[in-house]
Write a structure and sequence with these properties.
GO molecular function: metal ion binding; oxidoreductase activity
Shape: globular
Keywords: Iron, Metal-binding, Oxidoreductase
Number of strands: 9
Number of domains: 1
Order of helices and strands: HHHEHEHHHEEEHHEEEEHH
Number of helices: 11
Strand order of the largest sheet: 1-7-4-9-3-2
Largest sheet: 6 strands, antiparallel
Strand content: 15-25%
CATH architecture: Sandwich
CATH superfamily: q2cbj1_9rhob like domain
Family: Belongs to the iron/ascorbate-dependent oxidoreductase family.
Helix content: 25-40%
CATH topology: Jelly Rolls
CATH class: Mainly Beta
InterPro entries: Oxoglu/Fe-dep_dioxygenase_dom
Radius of gyration: 19 Å
Distance between the termini: 31 Å
Protein name: Fe2OG dioxygenase domain-containing protein
Length: 291
């Protein structure tokens, strides 16, 4: 096992230990008080959103989910790089159900990574999370239609933080057979958590169907550049297994600067971030945990 794998396992173990500790009633109450106090102190420091993001923020606050046409949201250089990565993923001849662009390749052609650090995205994440934000990076992937529900293709709620924001951008048209983002709304998530006595981990379809009927499962389908804004720490969700067509997408992730834990597998290395540092503003360096 290499050093990066050992560090990843150690990070996961520390995060799980922290979450277990915070379940103790006295510690949980103390932690919640500190959290809400910090959000209260940050109210006057929250940024002002550009006009097009007010509705997204309201949807996130009300239901932890928003869906928009993102074609006007993405600059031309971001679209060009995304298209190049899609072509690279299409050329992959492995039989892996999910293929990703490596963090090194994302850093070598950093338009996508840097778009995740744009003021518009950081402003939205900070207004929703209510605290200074940590930008966790971008993931670009191809999912093949094998129909197998493993890992994130199974139902789960993310455990990184109390609140989190992800922006999922489809890089291909996504219909029912193309593996759309699937989720339960706020009320159904609450019902599933209670019915399954859920804390963390992956839930198979049969178990989820026992708590929430399959007819109540929601899917975000849409054309290329459809964008989903979602708090994956507050809603049950999954990447529905594709059955007919490959799905291409990119996902930008944000947490607070004091999460329970982060999963480092798809984050940029410290060495890469140091190389990018001169291209980033002070705010972007802070969001990338470089200052």
């Amino acid at each position: 096992m290499d050093v990066d794998s050992v560090l990843a396992l150690a990070t996961r173990a520390r995060g799980k230990a922290k979450r277990v500790l915070l379940r103790a009633p006295f510690i949980k109450q103390w932690s919640e008080q500190r959290y809400f106090a910090a959000r209260g102190r940050h109210v006057d420091d929250r940024p002002w959103l550009e006009r097009g993001r007010f509705g997204v923020l309201e949807d996130l606050r009300q239901g932890f989910f928003a869906q928009r046409d993102g074609s006007d949201m993405l600059p031309a250089d971001v679209v060009d790089v995304a298209d190049r990565f899609v072509q690279r993923l299409k050329a992959d001849t492995s039989n892996k159900p999910c293929v990703r662009i490596s963090p090194a390749d994302l850093a070598a052609d950093p338009a996508l990574f840097k778009w995740g650090l744009s003021d518009a995205n950081l402003d939205l994440a900070e207004c929703y999370i209510g605290l200074p934000v940590h930008y966790l990076g971008v993931e670009v992937k191809r999912e093949r239609p094998d129909g197998v529900a493993t890992e994130v293709r199974q139902w789960h709620i993310d455990v990184e933080d109390r609140r989190m924001m992800k922006i999922i951008v489809y890089l291909s048209d996504v219909d029912e057979g193309c593996g759309p983002f699937e989720y339960l709304d706020r009320q159904r998530t609450r019902r599933a958590v209670a019915g399954l006595n859920y804390w963390s981990g992956f839930v198979p379809d049969a178990n989820m169907a026992s708590a929430v009927d399959t007819g109540e499962w929601l899917r975000a389908t849409g054309s290329r550049f459809t964008s989903v804004f979602v708090d994956t720490c507050r809603l049950f969700h999954r990447a529905k297994p594709p059955t007919t067509t490959d799905r291409y997408s990119m996902t930008f992730s944000y947490s607070s600067t004091t999460p329970y834990q982060v999963f480092p597998e798809f984050m940029q290395t410290r060495k890469t971030m140091l190389a990018l540092r001169s291209q980033l503003t002070k705010r972007q360096r802070r969001a990338s945990m470089m200052e």
